[in-house]
Amino acid sequence: MEMKLLVVGAGIIGVTTAYELARRGHDVEVVDREAAETLATSDATAGLIAPGHSFAWASPSAPKELLKSIFSADTSIRVKPRLDAELVSWGLKFLRECTGPRAHRNTLAKLRLAQRSQQLFNAMIAGKGMDFRPSTGGVLYLYRDADALERAMAHGSIMRENGQAQRIVSREELLQLEPALANSHVRFIGAVHDETDATGNPAIFAAEVRKLCEELGVRFTFDTAIVGIRSDSSPAGVPRVAALRSSQGELVADRFILAGGPESARLARTAGVRLPVYPAKGYSLTAPINEGAPAPGLGGIDERSLVAWSRFGDHLRMSATAEFAGYSQQYARKDFANILKAGKELFPGVLDLSRATYKVGLRPMTPDGPPIIGRAGESNLYINTGHGHLGWTMACGSAEMLADLIDGKPTVLAAEPYAVGR
User: Fold this and answer.
1) Whole-prediction pTM
2) Beta 315-324 vs 255-258: how paired, if at all?
3) How many CB atoms lie within 10 A of CB 333?
4) CA distance 226 to 244
């Protein structure tokens, strides 16, 4: 049955959701507060499609790392102490998930969704002939000492046992796979090569999906801020959304989908729905590659600094840091110091950093790790957010799951690990 559906958020989660719903015959409109299709977070990521890196952040080792971050600015995860009840509540939930069994469960949930999403993603790009500068040679997860590499292989057994083609490569093999690292000032002892992971330009992909949406009749309304939700009750007394209150007036639909990243949690609260989602600010720079320079061809992550990179044609994108400091997207040049340092050390002479562009984006993080996908109670409000640093990786699978739930169909994956209120 065709329904009128309103999707809030024109980022990569929003447009893939809109595409899947429109493909099934629904009347879909997408609303975004930006003046145009500004993919603030998608355009600030490293561009990795990485099921092989879908470990839950909440783990037995995480509390120690978080404590260290409070007293040092030179860490990949930063927590700025502040009087923020939302952050305190989120943090307590996060700490509750930092046990071995819960980390294992949450990692499996993330991995299964990421793998399903990659299957759908590959089918989409093959069927539509999309070109977003992909690299399908895998992704390298690099280590500086043998002990860390050995621990990583043991830690990664959950990936290999569940379908990821991962193997340890020696330093010699690493330099064959990625000759650009031969000149690096950092001596990597080896790497985990995930042959099933990939890279590409997520902003180009999202723009291509938007075109597919428009071909299916999806309407996009920009420069329209959603400021609240007006609720009422159905004839049976069940709470439901009557309309979204926007800067352009009220917007009505049969079903409403919040897919606007961290702002989804703020908006849901106006309907009495509390989502455990908090923003983690990520930083990235994109720099031109000097002509003739030996630039990397594969995407990778330096597992000590947690700086990630991927190549977009004649540019290299590098990203790092998860900063828990509220919703502000302000930044100073010093916030990029660790990425600049990595660019110079990893790829000396390769990048024209004088012409680099700098961006930040807010990743919507859940305490346990898996995103929130599903219906809010018995209402006509649906949620698709909380994907953290794996938004692009999980986008297509999340869209499929949400569309199945809206259509009342069985989901391919069990929906419970991603449910609202789990």
Assistant:
1) 0.95
2) unpaired
3) 8
4) 7
Q: At what angle do helices 202-215 and 391-407 cross, to 10 degrees?
A: 30
∠ CA 309-313-318, rounded to 5°: 20
Which of 375, 373, 377, 374 shows the shortest CA–CA distance to 237? Answer: 377
Mean residue pLDDT across the chain = 94
Sign of CA dihedral 179, 160, 203, 78: negative
Cα atoms in the Cβ-side hemisphere of radius 13 Å centred on 94: 22
42 confidence band (pLDDT: 50, 70, 90):
low
Structure tokens at 35: 């003046």
Would you say residue 291 has pLDDT above 80?
yes
Enumerate the H helices of 296-408 as residue ranges: 337-346, 391-407
* H or E element in which residue 160 lies: helix 157-160
Tokens matching residue 368 = 């346990």
CB-based burial, 84-122: b 16+ in 10 Å, e otherwise: eebbeebbeebeebbeeebbebbbbbbbbbbbbbbebbe
User: At a CB cut-off of 8 Å and minimum separation 6, what does 159 contact?
Assistant: 51, 52, 111, 166, 194
Q: Which residues contact 194 (CB under 8 A, 6 or more apart)?
A: 50, 52, 53, 138, 139, 140, 141, 159, 164, 165, 166
Residue 341 makes CB contacts below 8 A (sequence gap 6+) with none
Counting Cβ atoms within 10 Å, is residue 37 exposed (0-12), middle (13-18) or buried (19+)?
A: middle
Q: 337: which residues sit within 8 A by CB, 6+ positions away?
A: none
Contact between 18 and 213 (Cβ < 8 Å): yes
Q: Which amino acid, 277?
A: V
pLDDT computed for residue 253 by the predictor:
98
Question: End-to-end alpha-carbon separation of the chain, Å?
Answer: 28
Q: How far apart are CA 138 and CA 136, in angstroms?
A: 5
Length of the chain: 422
Burial of 364: CB neighbours in 10 Å, binned 0-12, 13-18, 19+: buried
349/358 Cα distance (integer angstroms): 19
Report pLDDT digits (tens) over 117-138.
Answer: 999 999 999 888 887 777 889 9
Q: What pLDDT, on the 0 to 100 scale, is given for residue 39?
A: 53
Give residue-wise pLDDT tens across range 310-339.
Answer: 999 999 999 998 999 999 999 998 999 999
What pLDDT does 172 receive?
98
Both tokens of 193, joined, read 């090569």
Residue 244 · residue 230 · CB < 8 Å: yes
- Type of residue found at 25: G
CA 316 to chain centre: 19
